[in-house]
Amino acid sequence: MPEFLRLLAAVQQSHLENLCEANKQHVRCQKCLEFGHWTYECTGKRKYLHRPSRTAELKKALKEKENRLLLQQRESGRERERETST
Ligand SMILES: [Zn+2]
């Protein structure tokens, strides 16, 4: 293989490696949930995703219901305002 071709191959190789390294910055490990490495490269400990508990879900649902009611009250209040002003 001519020298320049070997050089070109080496440059392309390192360029590809650089690209891979750059891409890795956006990679998220599914094991420890850290950025910058792949799951199979992980040296960290497995983290567990905190899923909202049933009570938390219920609270959230209640809060949404509350918000919707408040919004409705505000809407009907506006309606009443309009009625009294005319
Ligand atoms: Zn990891």
TrEMBL record:
Q: Which GO terms describe its molecular function?
A: nucleic acid binding; zinc ion binding
Parts forming coiled coils: none
Say which domain of life the source belongs to: Eukaryota
Entry's Pfam families?
Answer: zf-CCHC_3 (PF13917)
Q: Which residues form the signal peptide?
A: none
Q: Which InterPro entries match?
A: ZCCHC10, Znf_CCHC_sf
Name-wise, this protein is Zinc finger CCHC-type containing 10
Q: Which organism is it from?
A: Molossus molossus (Pallas' mastiff bat)
